[in-house]
Amino acid sequence: xxxxxxxxxxxxxxxxxxxxxxxxxxxxxxxxxxxxxxxxxxxxxxxxxxxxxxxxxxxxxxxxxxxxxxxxxxxxxxx
Length: 79
Fold this sequence. Notes:
Blueprint: H1 10-21, H2 28-56, H3 65-78
Helix pairs in contact: 2-3
């Protein structure tokens, strides 16, 4: 597992601290990891919705649905 140093605005730092304080996460790293997992899941959902829109518009579906399914499965394993 690697470590990443990211500058945060004071508001984001307060949000992270508050999530730990109220018990939503055990530490700051967990808050950030959960946020990144949620972001990755949102991106996967967006890709599916975009493909659905293209199909409705009569466009040819592009992309590898197996890779998308793997991406969703990996995100669920990480969380």
